[in-house]
Amino acid sequence: MWKVCKYTLLDLARNRFAMGYTILLFAVSTGMFMIEGDNTKALITLSQVVLALTPLLALVFTIIYFYNQYEFTVLLAVQPIGRRSIVLAQFLAVSSALLAAFMLGVGLPVLAWAPGAVGATLLVSGAALTTVFCAVGAWIAVTQRDRARAVGIGLVTWVFLVLVYDSLLLWLMFAFSDRPIEPLIVPLAALNPIDLSRMLIMLRIDLAALLGYTGAVYHQFFGSTGGMVVSLLALMLWTALPCWWAVRAFARKDL
Amino acid sequence: MIRTLILLSSLTIAQCGMAHICEVRSGGSITQALATTMDCDTVRVSAGHYQEGTITIERPVVLLGEGWPVIDGDGKGEVIVVKASHVTIQGFVVRGTAISDVNDNAAIKCISVSDITISGNRVEDSFFGVYLSSVARAFVQDNRVIGNASTPEGRRANGIHLWKCAHISVERNTVMHHRDGIYLEFVTDSRIEGDTSAHNSRYGLHFMFSHRDRYTRNVFRDNGAGVAVMFTHDVIMSDNHFEVNRGASAYGLLLKEINDATITGNVFADNTVGILIDGCNRAQVKDNRFHANGWAVRLLANSLDCVFEGNRFRSNTFDMTTNGDLVKSTLKGNYWDRYRGYDLDHDGHGDIPHRPMSVFGLVTERAPYAMVLSRSLMVNLLDQTERVVPTLTPAALEDKSPLMRIANG
Predict the structure, then answer these.
(1) Which among A51, B87, B161, B199 has the fewest CB atoms less than 10 Å away?
(2) Alpha-carbon torsion (A241, A242, A243, A245), positive or negative
(3) B201 and B262 share a domain?
(4) What contacts A122, CB < 8 A, 6 or more positions away?
(5) Do residue A170 and residue B371 have CB atoms under 8 angstroms apart?
(6) A163 and B379 in contact by Cβ < 8 A?
(7) A87: closest CA of chain B, how far (Å)
(8) Distance (Å) of CA B182 to CA A35, B149, B173, B246, B367
(9) What whole-number distance in Å separates Cα of residue A15 and Cα of residue B376?
């Protein structure tokens, strides 16, 4: 398994897309810090980019890479290697490559310009989102036979989590505004990994406003160490579950 | 100014003339000195610990502490009660009032007198600190009124408490760990200047029915609910700092039923709400700076003819929100860091108006817990759409000539 992982990583190191992704992130982050004098504001804008961009690119890249590696995967499958380790190795390789790209592209500028609690939270949630959407991408790639269809499903998933889910939440708030729906909202939002990461970051930035109304629930939960641990566990679950489904699907797949 | 001169001259009359000075040394009694030496107009008290219950001053006198003598009430009732006009108390450490639910026990209390000076004292661990009731013409200055940080709110009282006074000057005092830092009710024609009020469990400054007062260069920081002022007309607040007042109902400045207020050159930073304006008429809010507040300004629709001009709004989560469609106030020439317009005629003002209330501001106004969606992509799209085609946000809340850049740096 480690050998497969190693060779996939070596292949990824030469991948032009991965390199382009690193450069893109680096350019966006450094550009943001240079244009915007106020580092907090730069971090806010950067976090929006990270929250939207990293899931999308992680999803699409993982799906496309899995398809590009199809022949190699088939070749591996005829070797005396467990199917489980093939998928896991590929997932590990792709996710660590994307993580490295993220850490180089966003991590370095953030550490250089705005080290601190907000920056750290941004990096942790960005990294978590990368692995989560790698796992989801792997799952989609393994279950779908057609590449275009898989990318399509990936895009739909992204749009749903980044846009539709929040709209549904908003609709829910207005539709049930005369009912005590408030305690439900935060847990519901936390079910979505993108929303969860966003809340973790925003809690550090918009603290003054958040403490205003929703403050009580919001701050009690996410501000405490327990809440932090629960959030990270939730993000890990979001990685582990799709990963496990991918492994299971691949084990049964007719190659 | 004339007021100050009159006050000064009256005080000098009280102090000079044939100066009769007597001294109280450590181990002596201030009460006895005041009672036996009626010809003394100045009593100098040396360093030491004076524990003699309540000291009542019933004749004009200057009480001077030298080397911080401690007057300790030992937790029984009041410490110093002034019942005569023309009294000065300076240079003491006063402590040990009783905590009471019935009596307003104070470290230094003045009742129905005039021409009082309380300056340069340290009031420690007291229930009420400096308490003036029905006093005309007084200086309360350079005092440090520090409560005990561990006292629960129910057992705290106000640091500087003024009730039914006129022509009072409260200057350069520091008040911490009390219930309200500075409390005024029915106090008119007074000046509150250069004070610091911080870490009080309720309000940093709290006044009601206190007309024609002026508040300048004070700092109100990290008080339980910020500053709340109500039912007053003709107030001037300038060059104050309102900072770090955070919480579900904390305000940098809460204006309730305030008419004809002038609010200029203040700094509002890191508050949950910078200013909440509720039922105020003709407030002039000019040249203030709003930075990193949750809501910089919440202007409720029951306010009329307020003017916002030359203010700077930077890095606030919401710059301005209101709760209705009808806004009868004027916004002009403010700087908004969110403004994305252009200035083709180079007059320094943007050519297209700026609506400071975002759609998301509107949404959270109706469903407060929508705050959970703050800065999500969907919310950003909503706000951007509204910026291009403004339809939802109240049209009246609009700055017709927003500044392109911050004036004077």
Answers:
(1) B199
(2) positive
(3) no
(4) A43, A46, A47, A50, A106, A110, A201
(5) no
(6) no
(7) 32
(8) 44, 17, 10, 19, 35
(9) 32
Number of domains in chain B: 2
One domain, residues B213 and B330? no
Residue B152 makes CB contacts below 8 A (sequence gap 6+) with none
Residue B371 lies in a domain: no
d(CA A166, CA B277): 32
The CB-side HSE value for A206 (13 A sphere, CA atoms) comes to 27
- Give the domain CATH number at B127: 2.160.20.10
Q: Are residues B295 and B166 in the same domain?
A: no
Q: Looking at the structure, tell me whether residues B244 and B100 fall in a common domain.
A: no
Is B337 exposed, middle or buried, given 0-12, 13-18 or 19+ CB atoms closer than 10 A? middle
Answer yes or no: do B94 and B206 share one domain: yes
* Residues in chain B within 8 Å Cβ distance of A174: 366-367
Please list every residue in chain A whose beta carbon sits closer than 8 Å to the beta carbon of residue B317. Answer: 206, 208-209
Which residues between 212 and 231 in chain A have a beta carbon less than 8 angstroms from any beta carbon of chain B?
212-216, 218
- Residue B277 main-chain phi, psi, to 5 deg: -110, 110
User: Cβ–Cβ of B363/A186 closer than 8 Å?
Assistant: no
Which of B196, B217, B238 lies at the terminal end of a domain, its last residue?
B217
Three-state secondary structure call for residue B295? strand
Measured distance CA(A239)–CA(A255) in Å, rounded: 24
Closest-approach residue (CA) in chain A for B269: A208
State how far the Cα of B342 lies from the Cα of B344, in Å rounded to an integer: 6
Of B190, B217, B244, the position where a domain reaches its end is B217
Q: Do B375 and A212 touch (CB under 8 A)?
A: no
What is the rounded CA–CA span in Å between residue A229 and residue A216?
19
Are B84 and B111 within 8 A, CB to CB? Answer: no
Q: The tokens 């005080």 sit on which residue? A: B11
Of B247, B293, B373, the CB nearest to A169: B373
Decide if B372 is inside a domain.
no
Residue B298 near residue B273, CB atoms below 8 Å: yes
Per-residue pLDDT tens digits of chain A, which is 255 residues long? 788 888 888 888 888 888 999 999 999 999 989 988 778 888 888 998 899 999 999 999 999 999 998 898 889 888 888 888 889 999 999 999 999 999 999 999 999 988 888 899 899 999 999 999 999 999 999 999 899 999 999 999 999 999 999 999 999 988 887 888 777 888 888 899 999 999 888 877 776 666 655 555 666 677 677 778 888 899 999 999 999 999 999 988 887
Q: Where are the beta strands (DSSP E) in B16-127?
A: 21-24, 42-45, 49-50, 55-57, 61-65, 70-72, 80-82, 87-90, 93-95, 106-111, 114-119, 122-124
Looking at the fold, whether B114 and B17 belong to one and the same domain comes out as yes
Give the domain range for residue B253: 225-357+394-409
SS3 content of chain A, % helix, strand, coil (to 5): 85, 0, 15
B193-240 per-position pLDDT tens digit: 999 999 999 999 999 999 999 999 999 999 988 899 999 999 999 999
Predicted ipTM of the assembly: 0.82
Residues B25 and B148 in one domain: yes
**Residue B269 to chain A, least CA–CA distance (Å):** 10
Helix, strand, coil abundance in chain B, percent, nearest 5: 10, 40, 45
Output the six-digit token pair for B293. 């507040």
Shared domain for B31 and B98, answered yes or no, is yes
Q: Do A50 and A28 touch, CB atoms closer than 8 A?
A: no
Q: Are strands B289-291 and B136-141 parallel, antiparallel or unpaired?
A: unpaired
- Which structure tokens are listed for B237? 């607040």
Cα–chain center distance at B29? 37
